[in-house]
Write a structure and sequence with these properties.
By secondary structure, this protein is of the alpha+beta class. About 35% of the residues lie in helices and about 15% in strands. The longest helix is centred in the last third of the chain and has 21 residues. The chain is globular and about 55 Å long.
Length: about 325
Amino acid sequence: MVFIPWVMVRAWLAPLPDTIQKQVNDALDYNLDGIIVYVDQSGKPPAFYVAGWKDRENKVPADPQALFKIGSISKLYIAAATSKLINSQRLLLDDTLAKLLPELAGRIENADKITLRMLLQHRSGIPDWIKAAEFPWDKPPTDVSKVLELVFDEPSKFMPDSHYEYSNTNYLLIGKILDSTLGYNHQQYIKKEILTPLGLTHTFGSLSEVNSGDVANGYDSHYDKDVKMLDFVAPGGSMVATAQDMGIFLRALNDGSLLNKEEQAIYSSVYKYEHTGLLPGYGSIARYHKDIDTVVIQFVNTSGGNAWTISEIIYNRIIRILDRQKRS
């Protein structure tokens, strides 16, 4: 018998409010500290809905323009940048990890069989560094190489391309491949080729690039304080952005205005068009809903316990409200 916490049952079965703002307000009843929702409906100005706290200790209200650690949503930006470099033939999808990063050939099993395509698609079999028991969550390494060392000499989870298993190590390695190919940090390329053309001035490669006061505080049930200053530097999980910047990016990624036709075809063959992100203190959801032609971004600055499941329930209820409004 599966036990489902009452708080989750209550969140799911509560009557659906008439408005998104009412639903966002109600989210605070389920122990979420703060929530930001950005909605971009085709033909309408973007709308923001917020409730709770940006800074719980000092009673600073949630701010729709606050920066947020977006975690694995960073992978969408890396996949888009990689698609551009593949289209320009600076990289090939069938290049192997051993060819692209020869120094790792003896440290990662099957490096001579794992291709860039497999890394992009999470079909490499390389273990996920985030699952390493020795990862110091209360003091994450500021050197990406130290993160990568957590999977050195570990056995492969499966033979390359035999099936799918999500691994953050894949995108850490892609980040290193991009750096090696470009001769400079891939976040500079993302800024030049993706952020600047879209006018995204509130998206950054890492926490270290921003004023910490502009970032929403993060709260996790395993800590007794704000965890905002825990800096996770591994590519594929390091970026910081506002909800609006992320919404503009996601719309452009989905409608074809970011990538040209050839780049879009490459991207479509290797990665998805939506993502979630989860770091201590931060949970984020970024999705485009084609049936209602709407981008919805949701940030919650609470993690641990039931926070992620509650966040997903709230998000799905917001989509139901939007769908009902569309049909009425």
